[in-house]
Design a protein that fits this description.
Distance between the termini: 35 Å
Helix content: 40-55%
Shape: globular
Number of helices: 10
Structural class: alpha/beta
Number of strands: 6
Strand order of the largest sheet: 2-1-5-6
Strand content: 5-15%
Order of helices and strands: HEHEHEEHEHEHHHHH
Radius of gyration: 19 Å
Length: about 260
C-alpha cells in the first residue's frame, strides 16, 4: 500500500521523500525487471535521458504469452522487439525481494526495499518507465507511478492504449498535456512500436525544451497529482481488495490441508 507507506507519518518510509531538494536533471529512465519490450524501450529513449537506471538485468521470458485484455495478442510485438535487439536467450535474474517489517510479528505490514525512492526520483524532473502491464484499456499503478506522485516527478510510463485516459478520469494529469499534438496523442495508438516511438520523441522534446519543467503549468500538474493521490482512496481500496483475496486463498489452502 504505497499511499500508507509514502504519506502516513507513522511510517518512517514517508520521510524518505525530499520535496525540498532541487531537481537539477531532466529525465531518468527506470528499467525495473527487464524483458525484451522494456529493453527495446530503453534503447530508444537512452539518447534523450540524463540517467539510465538498469540495476536488475535482462530476462527474456517475462512477457511471453500475455494477451491483451481486449484480445489483441502481444506476442508478435514482443518477438519483434527480440529480433530488433538480437536477444534470444534467457539469463539469470536476481530478485530484490528483501522486506523491512513494521511492528511485532509484522503487525503493521512490510516495506519492499524496491519501494524506496532512489536518488533519481529526487533529482530528476521526469521519470520514464514501463508499467507492469501494457494491455489496452487496463489500469495498473505500480510503486514507480506512486513514487512520481509522492515525489513531485512528471511520469511518462509506457502503457497500452487508452490507459492515460483512465489516469485522467481518476484525476491525474500528464506532462504530455504540454507536448505537441503529434506526441500527446500516443494514448490512442494501438500500435506498440508507434507508441514507443512517440515516447522517444516526447523525451527528445522535453530534453530540448527543458524550461517547460520550470513553467507554472508543469508545476501545477505536479501539485494536482500529489493532492489527488494523497487525498484519494484509490490505492487503499485496490490494496484492501487484493489483501482479502490473498487471505481467502490462504484460508482455503489451510482448510484443504486440514481436511486431507
Amino acid at each position: 500500500n504505497t499511499k500508507m507507506l509514502y504519506f502516513n507519518n507513522l511510517y518512517f518510509t514517508s520521510f524518505t521523500f525530499d520535496l525540498t531538494r532541487k531537481k537539477d536533471k531532466n529525465i531518468a529512465f527506470i528499467s525495473g525487471e527487464r524483458g525484451p519490450v522494456r529493453t527495446y524501450l530503453m534503447t530508444q529513449v537512452t539518447p534523450y535521458c540524463d540517467t539510465i537506471v538498469d540495476r536488475i538485468g535482462y530476462k527474456n521470458s517475462r512477457d511471453d504469452n500475455k494477451k491483451n485484455s481486449i484480445g489483441r495478442n502481444l506476442d508478435s510485438f514482443i518477438q519483434k522487439c527480440r529480433e530488433m535487439l538480437g536477444e534470444h536467450s534467457n539469463s539469470d535474474l536476481k530478485y530484490y525481494d528483501n522486506f523491512l517489517n513494521f511492528g511485532i510479528n509484522n503487525k503493521f505490514g512490510s516495506f519492499p526495499i524496491g519501494y524506496d525512492p532512489i536518488d533519481e526520483y529526487r533529482n530528476h524532473n521526469m521519470i520514464v518507465y514501463s508499467e507492469t502491464t501494457n494491455f489496452d484499456n487496463e489500469f495498473f499503478m505500480s510503486e514507480k507511478t506512486a513514487k512520481c506522485f509522492a515525489n513531485f516527478n512528471h511520469f511518462l510510463p509506457y502503457l497500452g492504449a487508452n490507459c492515460y485516459k483512465i489516469f485522467s478520469d481518476l484525476g491525474f494529469r500528464s506532462i504530455l498535456e504540454l507536448a505537441p499534438d503529434n506526441i500527446n496523442d500516443l494514448d490512442q495508438d494501438l500500435d506498440h512500436m508507434t507508441k514507443i516511438d512517440k515516447i522517444k520523441k516526447a523525451c527528445e522534446y522535453f530534453q530540448k525544451n527543458s524550461s517547460i519543467f520550470k513553467s507554472n503549468e508543469a508545476k501545477t500538474i505536479l501539485i494536482d497529482n500529489y493532492i489527488n493521490y494523497s487525498s484519494s482512496n484509490l490505492n487503499k481500496e485496490s490494496f484492501d481488495r487484493f489483501l482479502n483475496l490473498i487471505k481467502s486463498k490462504k484460508k482455503n489452502e489451510n482448510n484443504y490441508l486440514e481436511q486431507n
